[in-house]
Known about the structure:
The structure is a homodimer. Chain A has helices at residues 15-27, 44-50, 54-58, 66-69, 93-104, 122-125, 145-159, 175-191, 200-214, 218-245; strands spanning 5-10, 32-36, 61-63, 75-79, 90-91, 109-113, 130-132. Chain A is α/β, with parallel strands linked by helices. Chain A folds into two domains: 2-159, Alpha/beta knot, CATH 3.40.1280; 175-245, Helicase, Ruva Protein, domain 3, CATH 1.10.8. A seven-stranded parallel β-sheet of chain A has the order 3-2-1-6-4-7-5.
Amino acid sequence: xxxxxxxxxxxxxxxxxxxxxxxxxKTMGLRHLYLINPRHFPDPQADAMAAGADDVLxxxxxxxxxxxxLQGVVFTVxxxxxxxxISLEVKTPREAMPLLQQHAAAQPVALLFGTEMSGLTNExxxxxxxxxxxxxxxxxxxxNLAAAVQVMCYELSVAAGAGLPALAExxxxxxxxVEGFFSHxxxxxxxxxxxxxxxxxxxxxxxxxxxxxxRLEQEEINILRGILSVTTEYNARLKTRYLQEHx
Amino acid sequence: xxxxxxxxxxxxxxxxxxxxxxxxxKTMGLRHLYLINPRHFPDPQADAMAAGADDVLxxxxxxxxxxxxLQGVVFTVxxxxxxxxISLEVKTPREAMPLLQQHAAAQPVALLFGTEMSGLTNExxxxxxxxxxxxxxxxxxxxNLAAAVQVMCYELSVAAGAGLPALAExxxxxxxxVEGFFSHxxxxxxxxxxxxxxxxxxxxxxxxxxxxxxRLEQEEINILRGILSVTTEYNARLKTRYLQEHx
Lengths: 247, 247
């Protein structure tokens, strides 16, 4: 579905931003870049910033007008940094990208970015069905163009279902092994005389909470019980030596 | 709460990335930047890429070790691009940032980024309580460092409740006005003879659907009814003339 999405950059001033935008797109699985009257393109700075997304740059479509860039597109979301004097509906990236993604299931859609300094013109925005605004620090809202492309493509990719691969196989310990550990722990704490200064029930409850959060694995229980065994053996040896010395 | 969050960049190679990261942070309302042994800092390239976030750079804390950077921190999320051979828990940005944000309500927390080429070392990751992974194109997963900072700070800002300001005041038309328009429309379509070739009920249903999506405002209804009036008047004049000519 990401294949039906074109990223359209209008009148980009700095070619480095075009390259960085291409890189941002490609990391999120997007590949169709349209450029409306870029000031410099192709350009070595664009290539440098693409850092491996040169196929996106190579296939970029350079257009002479917005209507050319949006030909065949059924749904366009335009970015806006301002929120005043705007009559179109405005949504957050999180609201807007699932809609774009939905439309992209069947037909071409576009995500439209304006020029670095002043964004899209009113005429350009009028071509869109929806506006998207990245909520930003009111005292410093100037996201870099490629950074905005990265955020939007990230949201698109999440909307398209990107997630983590299945968890690496873990081996959580079964109940009886966890309980075996707690019994061993409690016994060991008694043996080393720890409970002479502590309330056993309360302390065990706190320790249970700690290990519950950790979600113990079998192997870890083996390690912990190993430590307990050594501790009590060491303690037993100490006690024997003490008794021998004071005989 | 964002005030309790520090962004920690470990062994950053390119000073431009430090500047761009500072800019990304500031756009999302974050301000505490910690740098572990940056290769070049301060540096004119960092200043240039900060583009107005120079206060974040000026206040950046340069540290000699990760433990120095994490002093006082109660919860650390470390970024990872790889998912193999990892024993810590890994979450998506959308899962991890609300957790970081939660902890930040009370005490300092950190978001930890590794070096451009190879990310964080295992030793550095071991300092974190949680790993975060930005799902990326498996064939091209190399997000720029500042782009990754932008995505994570964006998620933090959303987690902190950033959204759109209240909607600009709209004046949706009340039910009776909308119905008045539909009556007028239907009558006009009859008058101009449109329904001789169309099923009236079915067509009106489709038109209702269209205008429902548009959520008509009062003023728009006035405009539309104005158009209808002119249309039928024009039609009436045409009819009169026709009748006169064929008398």
